[in-house]
Amino acid sequence: MSEREIPARADQAPDRNTAAAEHAGTAENKPGSPENGGGKETPTASAADPILVVDRLTLSVASGQNPVQDVSFSLGRGDSLGIVGESGSGKSLTLRAVLGLLPSGVKRTGGEVRHTVRSAMVFQDPRGALDPLCPVVKQVAEAVRYRQGKNRREARAEALKLLGLLGLPDSLKREDRYPNQLSGGQCQRIVIALALACRPDILLCDEPTTALDVTVQRQIIDLIVRLQRELGFALVFVTHNLAIAAEICTRIAVMRQGRIVEEGAAVDVLVRPRDPYTQMLIEAVLPLPEFASESEPEDRTRDSGEGGTR
Q1: Hey, where are the domains in the chain?
Q2: Phi and psi of 33, rounded to 5°?
Q3: What is the distance between the alpha carbons of residues 235 and 196, in angstroms, rounded to a whole number?
Q4: Is 136 in contact with 130 (CB distance < 8 Å)?
Q5: Could you say which of 3.40.50.300, 1.10.1040.10, 3.90.550.10, 3.20.20.80 is the CATH number of the domain covering 13-125+200-285?
Q6: Which residues of the chain have pLDDT under 70?
Q7: What one-character-per-residue DSSP string does 153-211 give?
Q8: Are strands 251-256 and 80-84 parallel, antiparallel or unpaired?
Q9: 195 vs 62, 127, 236, 240, CA distance in Å?
């Protein structure tokens, strides 16, 4: 892949933020050290003091298999990390382990996750993340009340402010609506508003654009980029799409079979991949076909001497 094929934002250091489904405080952990079973150095973030450290994380299921094994990375304030890989590589489980929301039957059996700041998550299925029996403005207002300690009137005003920031219609101010009355893109924006209501320092995004059509994907990506720039939260963005990861994140980690096989600056990973699996993912990105211009057939006819006066 050449330099010109890398999306424009891949070599920039963005400031972005977004979230939905919140978790505050530290995720069950004590600082690690070589004396306490360390020995393998944890990668450091660009910031001097990381706000999130995942150190040799290992997750296990009842069969004894490890869907995530020995995964390490760290994140500083304002950093953005994209985790890419095929389905089943352990990306989403890693994200859920950070939040402390592992599914039933999966448990952490090694390593640790350390953070002392608020984190929130945007899930892949926006409709599944929303309460279908509660109007959306009310849902966001409840999150504001719970996380920010405001009264009902203040919470509703803050919720409407968030929804306006996310580009949702002004008609919600006059008439609240249920999730099934909104489009998929609008529901995803509601989920992002729920996350922002938690005022997170870390936003975790689990393939938030996968279920959306390409034009709405573009809108959500631009929204996340803008919000992180304005609000300054750290971002972990899970996706199977290398182009999206390069567009949003300054660093990329490539996962395969539960392990990180390569990590580095987005440009370095995409232009100078070291691992064969990363090279395979890059080669699997389909380029747009090159079409001949409409004038070419006519030009060829003219050049061949055909089409003259009969």
Answers
A1: 13-125+200-285
A2: -155, 165
A3: 13
A4: yes
A5: 3.40.50.300
A6: 1-48, 211, 286, 288, 292-310
A7: HHHHHHHHHHHHHTT--THHHHS---GGGS-HHHHHHHHHHHHHHT--SEEEEESTTTT
A8: parallel
A9: 32, 15, 14, 22
> Six-digit token pair at 99?
């939040």
Angle (CA) 20 98 12, round 5°? 75
CA nearest neighbour of 190 among 16, 18, 17, 15: 18
96, containing H or E segment: helix 91-99
Angle subtended by helix axes 152-165 and 136-148, to nearest 10: 120
Predicted TM-score (pTM) of the model is: 0.75
The confidence score (pLDDT) of residue 289 equals: 78
Pull the structure tokens for residue 153: 């009137």
3-class state of residue 119 by DSSP: strand
What would the two tokens of residue 122 be?
């945007």
CB 270 within 8 A of CB 6: yes
Q: How far apart are CA 229 and CA 163, in angstroms?
A: 18
For residue 33, the tally of other CB atoms under 10 A from its CB is 9
Do residues 69 and 46 touch, judged by C-beta distance below 8 A? no
